[in-house]
Amino acid sequence: MTRCSFQGQALTKRELEALSLLAKGLKTSEAAKLMGISIHTLRDHLANINRKLYVSNRAEATAWFVRREYEAQLTEAKRQVTELQARLTKLSRAASDFVDITPHTITNGGRWFSSKVELVRCLSLTPT
To answer: What's the pTM value of the predicted model, to 2 decimals?
Structure first.
């Protein structure tokens, strides 16, 4: 079961689902219908969420959820940037080694490259 821990308490997958729907602006009745549960069951989930997160209302719980999602996206973006930087460093080193080995044999349509930067641009060494 997917759980998200906060201050020693864990939200269940269904509690996170309910919180996600409410954070998107759905009414309690709309969220309950989408989840296939009664409004009373959804309210029970909300009471459990508030207790586990030590918050007193839906707005505070929603703010917690949005902050959690933002932090997760930020962490993933940082990971991707680090990965791209590593790949770019490898590509730059490869281009540098290539130019150092054969400095005057690389041309672009009959025109000599004047720098390693120009070679990298021409080869379109961009991370995928």
So the answer is: 0.58
The span from the CA of 89 to the CA of 62, in Å, is 40
Q: Tens of pLDDT along 69-105?
A: 999 999 999 999 998 888 888 887 776 665 554 445 4
Distances (CA, A) of 72 to 4, 68, 69, 83: 12, 6, 5, 17
Q: Which residue has the tokens 């004047």?
A: 114
SS3 sequence, the chain?
A: CCCEEECCEEECHHHHHHHHHHHCCCCHHHHHHHHCCCHHHHHHHHHHHHHHHCCCCHHHHHHHHHHHHHHHHHHHHHHHHHHHHHHHHHHHHHHHHHHHHCCCCCEECCEECCCHHHHHHHCCCCCC
Query: What's the CA gap between 66 and 54, in Å, rounded?
Result: 16
Sign of the alpha-carbon torsion through 15, 76, 6, 50: negative
CA–CA separation, 117 vs 99, rounded Å? 10
